[in-house]
Prior knowledge:
Blueprint: E1 3-7, E2 10-13, E3 18-25, E4 33-39, E5 46-52, E6 58-60, E7 68-73, E8 78-83, E9 92-99, E10 107-108, E11 112-117
Amino acid sequence: QVQLVESGGGLVQAGGSLRLSCAASGGTFSRWRVGWFRQAPGKEREFVAAIDWSTNALYYTNAVKGRFTISRDNVKNTVYLQMSSLKPEDTAVYYCAAGPTTTEIKSWGQGTQVTVSS
């Protein structure tokens, strides 16, 4: 069972940047998609971005295209989410997730809070 640990959340002003990290232990991401979801207060959890570990294909929700970048470090078995031009509507708990597809998640991280002030 792959365990995921996120870090890097915090408070930032609108227009600022943050980088989230997701480190895996107890296994590898081989042939999985690894990515980020977020859940804002009173809203359902939504997909943000993902990377296919086998093909390196990248996937983004429209709301973050051009502002967020997902990347990976194979040696560290870590996935990053670089968030730029942050908006107050990006405020949410961000969860790292991994599984065969982005709709078949096998492992979730504990979540990290991102708060963007206006």
